[in-house]
């Protein structure tokens, strides 16, 4: 068989193979962007080349420009080439072939000769010699056929495919066929001026003229993709810079704008790039192409969006909320386990040793171990940390970086800003984001750090070693740090490094395999079964075989009030009976159900036997700030004498295009930090956003989110239903707003879309506004001067909206929940409490203190102001070593819910630091519901948004303690939270419980803050008062038993007469400017 016949058969097999592979959708993984040496082409798929057109020009030697259509897999593109470019390609390929056949004594040469032997004798096609100047009109079609055949010949041979000359001719790079980057855009060799970061100048032509003469110009390969463009080294294909499409993106050319005839200027919000093209015409064509391409393929990013946001609204996106850290941490851990390509994390503070699932029976769900496992599996992990000023903040980010970086080369950690290098001294990166494969994004107020994990109980103590009840209610097992017995086994895994494990970690119990048990701490009575339990059994199909499923209706036959007899624990005999009758099948199923319920409750009670907060995770910020974070498993406070400070927070997760927007923010921050700190370090690669073509309008909801329980159900029978999930919901409109500026993300303009979104949502409110925030520092003045200390106008927007409701005689409620005290170490009334007093001063100045405060201004217009707005907080009590204790529940959430239809969830506090844009960097999710359920608003039927309404009801149920009251009261109160503005709920439920709880705490404990303390010098006398917690414990316990939930009134008269609340400085605080606190 001759060589031509061989080639023909080879070509036919290639075609059939191409067809089958196309059906299998051959792809280059996205992670290959970090490995430019990968196979550039799609495996075994050919590149099809065809000259589809030509145009004649006045160019003398090569008058014809050939339009070449190329296809490779799903990628199609067109290049334009002249004959002299074909000639150059031919010369370089022939030279390359000549080198291959020379028998050099090297391994590379031997491999090439072996490859040539496998290919056989190569018959080169005819290459035209006659210059095009001498071609007649009839000869052009013949030349097109010759050039087509020559291109196909080169593309069919592996030894020529990857030659740089051919790649450049075809406009191909290692990033061309990565499908998740989008279409194959223009790729071209350009020259870039060294130090190409240039800002606009009035003398740009003169500047560029001298730079062209004296400057260094280096070759770069420019690549255009759906969401960005980037350039790389032509030699090794390593990316040198990524430039995102944004509203300021624009390309132009010519001597007027660049000072160079063949110059090309590309600019966006981050930089201005000057390039030199082959000629003036090519520069103009490329500028036009970039502008047209960006408007067509990146229209989501180049257009101006509502609130000035950098991304447009997303429709029909999955969005799910989490209340408190328990559910959030668990969901994050499961999301990390699903990661296939990348994990992005940015936090104000990150603790590597934090346990994401508790009680943890080992190290599998400790954050550092979880990340290590994924890194070992090839997942790239990128972490951005706030680089703190060590003199003022003790979060030890350098320890976090070193701990994570030394674990694996796939983990990269950057810290920012560098104050020493001119970065800001006063501002921080405050976002809390976790992004998985750019498809799943967690956004909110919860850092992955010590002190954040909590649940609806907000426990004050965690001593471990208590009694818990197993399946036999009389069988009591005593456990100290780790429980023993059937449900647990001891830890045997070593630490990440070779250091000796701390005692606390050695005794850390291993993880319970059922995540659904995690929130059953303090569950219902062991003996009593509930409807919720039965529903859980119904939904747990893994319990039953096929015969069982037919008899699931028998579940309803079990009386909800029936006691579970001890004898049912031994169900082996029942479960092993071979029955042919329906009655026996029913009995078998009944035994399985009872066994499941017993196991479920046994695990729930066993949770109490383990420590949930290990080492530094057990904390009280006011008693003692963090120190020695490099010793994470050593307690920072004495848990036998000091209650922990509970932590209340809210976060959410989004999936699909919405998540890609969050990823884009992270990528922008990462690339800015890399450019300023690690420009030439390969350990920190440039990141590239994926194309939106990768995401459907509604991507599939991850399985670990669809396991959620419905929290809106009318019947709430036990705390188990308070697992802080809501079913995967589709919300029609989704927006991402942020606060960023030049220092934080490297853009010229400041984006303050968060404050705009807050104010617009307030203005649109019709029925109520519900706010939870760490701070409440804002401005109510109608007219601001440049000298005013606080500038954001959220309080002013609230003032106007409440006043409008009063004048229109409309029912309107505003709920504001903030912490009782700021979480700074110190004691009010002493120099150590200066930071606490500073924040308290600005909070109260916004709320009630002074003529321009919100309440003071409203009282001038509204006599019965309590009907419109209320300020609240959270507190809890417990017993610690037989002593009654109380502590505030620290509200760290940053949310606002409006009318059960709009939700804002993120990291932004209500203060200037978070809202102005040029200070702290923040991210907030803005959700507008488009799917509704019927509830009530002011006793009238009302369409409540599935997302926002369920979140508001969940929060109110938690704060009111609905899960702790008896069943009848629980059902009644669950119904009543459905109408948040009715007079009955506002006055008889919410405010009444808050007031009663406040009065009980004031009677039992010497609580701070308190309305009884009007001045700092009154604190001493107040603390000396005889309180029941010491002098009449029995009475104190009787009163405390009447407390419902954690809701209390914020004491608005606290230090109301203190004129110098913000002047009691320590020596160190004298150097801190006012804007740090606001």
TrEMBL record:
GO biological process: intracellular signal transduction; phosphatidic acid biosynthetic process; phospholipid catabolic process; regulation of vesicle-mediated transport
InterPro entries per record: PLipase_D/transphosphatidylase, PLipase_D_euk, PLipase_D_fam, PX_dom, PX_dom_sf
Entry superkingdom: Eukaryota
SUPFAM superfamilies: Phospholipase D/nuclease (SSF56024), PX domain (SSF64268)
Keywords: Hydrolase, Lipid degradation, Lipid metabolism, Repeat
UniProt cross-references to SMART domains, sorted A to Z: PLDc, PX
Catalytic activity: a 1,2-diacyl-sn-glycero-3-phosphocholine + H2O = a 1,2-diacyl-sn-glycero-3-phosphate + choline + H(+)
Protein family membership: Belongs to the phospholipase D family.
Protein name (Swiss-Prot/TrEMBL): Phospholipase
Source organism of this protein record: Sarcoptes scabiei
